Amino acid sequence: MTNEQKAELTRTWADPPGLWGFLTTVDHKRIAARYICSTIALLFLAGMLALDMRLQLSQPGMQRMDPQEYNEAFSLHGSTMLFLVSVPVMEAMALWLVPLMLGQRNVAFPRLSAFSYWLYLGGVLMLWVPHALNITPDLGWFEYPPLSGPAYSPGHRADIWAQMITFTEVAALAASVNIVATILKMRPPGMTLARMPLFLWAMLIASLMTILALPSVMLVTSMLISDRLVATHFFAPAGGGDVLLFQHLFWFFGHPEVYIIFVPAIGFVSAIVEVFARRPMFGYRAMVLSMVAIGVLAFGLWVHHMFAVGLPRIGNAFYTAASMAIAFPAGIQIFCWIATLWSGRPRFDTPLLWIVAFLVTFVVGGLSGVMAAAAPLDLQLTDTYFIVAHFHYVLVGGAMFPLFGAFCFWYPKATGRLMSEAWGKLAFWLIAGGFNLGFFPMHLLGLMGMPRRVYTYPAELGWGTLNLVATIGSAIAVLGGVVFVVNALVSLRRGKPAGPDPWGGATLEWAAPSPPPQHNFDWMPVETSLAPMWDAKDGLAVMEGLATGSREVLVTSLVEAEPEYRQHSVGPSIWPLVSGLAVSALFVGSIFTPWALVWGALPVGAALTLWFWPTRPRATAGPFARRSG
Amino acid sequence: MVRPDPMKWRVLLPAFAVTSCSGAQTPLDPVGDQASQLFSLLTLMLWVCGIAYALVLAFLGWTLWRARHVLERDPPEVAPEDRRLNHGLRIWAGLVAVGLIILAGGSYVVDWALSRAEREAALEVRVTGHQWWWRIEYRDPATHQWIETANELHLPQGRTALVLLGSADVIHSFWVPNVAGKMDMVPGRINQVALTPRRLGWFRGQCAEFCGSQHAHMAFDVYVDSPAQFAAWLTAQRQPATAATDPVLARGAQVVTQGPCAACHRLRGTPATGRAGPDITHLASRHALAAGTLPLTRGAIQGWIAQPKALKPGTMMPAIPLSAADADAVSRYLVTLK
Hints:
The complex is a heterodimer. Chain A contains 20 helices and 4 strands. Chain A has a single domain, classed as Cytochrome C Oxidase, Chain A (Up-down Bundle), CATH 1.20.210. By secondary structure, chain B is α+β, with helices and mostly antiparallel strands. In chain B, 38% of the residues lie in helices and 18% in strands. In chain B, strand 2 and strand 3 form a beta hairpin. The radius of gyration of chain B is 27 Å and the shape is elongated. At the A-B interface, helix 4, helix 10, helix 11, helix 12 and helix 13 of A face helix 2 and helix 3 of B.
C-alpha cells in the first residue's frame, strides 16, 4: 500500500473535527470508549452508595440514614450496577474489541451502535436526574407488585425505574444485534466457526442470550407501567391479575441476565489465560460446548428465584435439578483454565493476577449458588445476607474481576501505553482482599438469620461484629477502586509506551497499531489458525481489494467465513442522536400520559425516516433506473 | 424414623459458634423438625462443596507452585501433551457429576420429608401479613371459630401446626428460621408451612421479603409452650377483654374503646371493633409492641401512642394526641389487658 493510499484510507474513515464529530461519530472504538467511561463513572457512584449503606449497617441501631434513604440507596445501587454497569460494560467491551479481533474496520451496523449509546445515556439520565430531584426509585432492583403498583407506590418513583429499564434494554438489544451480526457475517477469511477465538464465542453467546431474554423484562415493566398509568390489572389480584406473573416474567429475564454478565467474563478469562500461560487454551471444544450449555440452561432455571413463593413442589424439584446442572459446564471451564495455566509457562502480570482472584472467589459464589439451588435449603437462605454474599461473589468475583483484568490487558491496545504494574498490583490486593473481607462475613450473617434489605437491626441478635468487619472490607475495596482508576488516568500520560503487542498476544487485535487508527487495519487479515499471531511466523497473511476511497468492509459466509461481497459501511451521521432524543422523549412522556405513545411516535418516525434516507445515486441502467424524458 | 440430632453436626461448623440463646433467629440452631432437616441438608452441602472447593484450590495451588519452582528453572520448549489433562478433565467431570447427584438427591429427600410433615398437621393457624405487622388467628379446636391475636405466635411442643399464610396488602415472607424455612405471603394466594417445634423456648421470626419502608421492623415472637401451657394460653386468648374496675382504668377504657383507637383496633367484648390494626384484646399478654419494635411496657405504650412515627418511621399508626391524664389512663388500662 502506497503512502497516498494510506493517507486516503485515513481521510475516508476520519470523523468530522470537533463537537460535530463527537456527536456524529460511528467509530466503534470511540462509542465503546464512551460506554466504558460512563460505566466506570456509574460504578464509582453506585460503589459510594454501597459504602453509605455499609456505614449505616456497621453497628446495630445506627441513625445515619432513615428507612426511606436506605431503601433508595439499595434500589439505586442495585439498578445501577445491574442495568447501567454490568450489562452495558460487557457490551461496550465487545463493541470495542470484536471488530479488532476480526480484523475489520467497523461493526456491521455502525449507526446502530451510536444509537445504542445515546439511548443508554438516556437510561442513565432517567435514573440519576430524578435522584438529584429526590424522586429516586425506592423498591429495589426488582420492584415486585403490588408494592410497586399504583395502590402502594403513588408518585413516579416506580415509573422511573420501569422506564429506565426500557431505555437500557433497547440500548442493549441494539448493541447485541450489532455484535451478533458482526461476529457471524464479518469474520476474516479463514476464521471458520471452529477457528473462532473463545472471546468471540463468549460475546456471540452472550449477545444471543440478550436478544432472547431482554424482551421479557421490557414486557413486564411495560405491563407495570400500564397497570400504573391506565389501570390495567395485570398484577392486581382483586382485578383478576396475578402478582406472580411479574416474578415469572422478570426472572425469565433476570436469571439469564446473570449469565449475560458472566459469559463475556468467560471470554476475558480465556483470552487472558491463553496469553499469560503462553500456550493455546486447553480444551477449546469443551469450552465452547460448555458456554453453549450455559447459554441454553440459563433459560431453564429462573424459578430458583421463586422457591419461597409457594409453587408446586414438583416444579421446584425440576428447577433444582436444572440449577444444579449448570454447575457442570462451569466446573469444566474452571478445570480448563487451571489446566491451561498448569501446562503453560504462566507469567504473573496484573491481568493474570485478576484471573487467579477470579478463580478463588468465583468458585465460592458458584458453590453457594449450588447450595441455594436446592429448593428446600433455599427456604432458609433466600432473602438473607447469604444470598447477598452469593451474588456479590458471582458478579464481582465472577464478572468484575475478569473485567478489571481485561481492562489492564487491553488498556495498552486502546491507549498505546501500559498501566503501572506496581500501582496495579496495589489496587489488585486492596480490591480482592477488601472484597473478600467485606463479603465473606455476609455468608455467616445470612446463616445467623439476617434478612436482606433491612435498614437497621437490633443489637441482641449479635450481628454487629460481622457487619463492622463487612463495612471495613468494603471501605478497603473502594479505596482499591480509587487506586485502580487513578492508575488508569496517570498511565494515560506517564505509562510506558506499549507498542502494538506488549503481551505477546494470540489474536488479531494485537496486529493493529496501539492505539488503532480509525480504520483499524490497513489490510484485511486472513486467518490460518486459532492463534494467528503465534502461528504466522513470517507475518500475517492478508488480502487486498477493499477500497481506500470509500468506507468498505468485507462480508463473509456464516460458517466457513468465505468472502462473499464488499459492503459499503455508513459514515458519520447526526440521525442516531436525533432518533435517540425522539425515542427518549417518547419514553419519558409515557410515564405521564398514554398519549405520549401516539404523539411521541411522530418525531420518532420522522427521525428514523431521515436516518434511513437513501443516499446512493439511483442506477442508470436496469429496472430501477432513473427514467429520463 | 430416627431424626438426625442436629447437635451431632455442630462440631462441623466451628466457625459459626452458635449458642442457643433466647429470642434466637438462626437456621444454625434448629429446634423444629423442618429446620433440623434443612440443617442436615446444609451440613451435607457444606461438606460436598467444601471438598469441591478444596480440590479447585489444590489444583490452582499446585499450578502456582509449579510455575514458581519448576517452570522458571526449567522452562519446557513446547507445551506438554494434553493427553494427561484430557484424562484429568474426564475424572473432574465425573466428580462434579457425582457431587451434583448427591446434592440433588439430598435435596429431594429433605423436600419429601417436609411435604410429609404438612399432612400430619394437628393445629391450624392463619397468619396474615400487613404493612408492618402480623395478624394471627387460631382455629379453636372446640368451637372451630377463629381466635385472633397479633405479632406473637404460640406453638405447642411436639405437635405440628399448619400455618396458612396470606397477605392483606403487599408480599411479605413468614420466617422463623429456628423452626422452619420461610414461605412468602402473596396477595391473592394462600400458602402454607408446617411447624413442628421440639424444644421449649422463645424464638424470633422476621419478614423476609422487602415490603416497604418498615420491612426492618416487621418481626414477631414465637413461644414454644408445653401442650398444657399452650392450651391455657389459647383459653385465655379466647376470653373477651377484662372490664375496668378502678376509675382511672375506666377512663382509659372509655378513651380506648370509644375514642380514636377503636377505629382501627378491636377489643373483643367492647364497642371497639376496628379491623385495620392489630387486635389488642390481650395486648398485655404479649411481650413486644409494634411488631417487635419496642418492649411491651407502660412507658413504651405511652410513647408509641404519642409519637409512633418517631419510633417506627412510616408506620400506619397515627399519632393520637391525648391529654396527659388520658394518656396515663390509657397506658394504665392497656397494660391490664392480659
